[in-house]
Amino acid sequence: MSTLKITDLHVSIEEKEILKGVSLEFSTGQTHAIMGPNGNGKSTLLSAIMGHPKYTVTSGSITLDGQDVLAMSVDERSKAGLFLAMQYPQEIPGVTTSDFLKAAINARREKPISLFQFIRTLDGSIKDLKMNEDLAHRYLNAGFSGGEKKRNEILQMKLLQPTFALLDEIDSGLDVDALRIVSKVVNEMKNESFGCVMISHYQRLYELVKPSHVHVLIDGKIVLSGGVEIIERIDESGYEWVKELGIELKQEEKKVILLESCAKKESSKQG
Ligand code: ADP
Ligand code: MG
After folding, report:
1. Short-list 89, 105, 83, CA closest to 167
2. Whose CA is closest to atom 5 on ligand 1?
3. Count of Cβ atoms closer than 10 Å to residue 32 Cβ
4. What distance in angstroms lies between residue 269's CA and the mean position of ligand 2's atoms?
5. Residue 54 CA: which ligand 1 atom is closest?
6. Could you tell me the distance, in angstroms and rounded to a whole number, from the CA of residue 47 to the centre of ligand 2?
7. Topology of the domain covering 3-270
8. Nearest residue (CA) to ligand 1, atom 23
């Protein structure tokens, strides 16, 4: 069993503190869901775990089986078994998807993968994900639709077989069929030596890839942890009820809630 442990993590972007002391523990064999209103630090958390240079860890620690993740470069983190499927995957013109995938696989192996084995694995995975076969020969994500980019992230995960997969809004841009295909691949990867942390706003994904743990992140802090009952509650009544827990929402969130409740009052007046 592997454990990814985050302790009192503080992260800033350009001097602005986004994460204000996050502590979480993920183990293989588990699937964690992270929910929370937009702009509260969900992507910041996953990007900081992976080592994105835009995010500065100002204090706290991240360890993988006791090893200091923060001391590792991004490629060392990948070799150690971490994988991030980004909310907004980068377009990289000039590098074909297949060259990129081969390089990523080889970076984690002593002996390079044979061309035969690579093509067989790639073709199999492309079929499983019901992707267009020509995508592998096109430049990485360049001109891909939103859904194609997301499938491409899952293709990478499937080929790299990480210990921990961090999936940031993997369901955005996917139609219902694509969501089913992607969820199936994630579910097939679930086992005692694989852990998954996913961010999504939607119950539809969580119904397909059932999380074992659910956390709510608001204003840079985990305000609530539990099971799938939290997802149901958020799906029914949004985040307004977190106020009952004595948590102050950020100003923008308050505005959204006020606008929504005004709209409701208006429509009940009219109706
Ligand atoms: P979430 O994924 O929960 O929607 P993010 O982690 O992406 O939220 O963003 C957290 C906060 O960081 C937001 O308030 C966002 O505006 C802010 N942020 C993101 N990028 C920058 C940046 N380059 N400079 C300043 N603030 C930023
Ligand atoms: Mg985000």
Report:
1. 83
2. 41
3. 22
4. 36
5. 23
6. 10
7. Rossmann fold (3.40.50)
8. 13
| Ligand 1 atom at minimum distance from 44 CA | 6
- Cα 13 to ligand 2 centroid, rounded to whole Å: 14
Q: Nearest C-alpha to atom 7 of ligand 1 is from which residue? A: 43
Q: Output the CA 1–ligand 2 centroid distance in Å.
A: 28
Pocket-forming residues, ligand 1, beta carbon under 6 Å: 13-14, 16, 18, 36, 38-44
Residue nearest to atom 11 of ligand 1 (CA): 39
Residue 168 CA to ligand 2 centre (angstroms): 7
pLDDT one digit per residue (tens) for the chain, 271 residues? 999 999 999 999 999 999 999 999 999 999 999 999 999 999 999 999 999 999 999 999 999 999 999 999 999 999 999 999 999 999 999 999 999 999 999 988 889 999 999 999 999 999 999 998 898 899 999 999 899 999 999 999 999 999 999 999 999 989 899 999 999 999 999 999 999 999 999 999 999 999 999 999 999 999 999 999 999 999 988 888 875 675 655 544 444 444 444 344 444 444 3
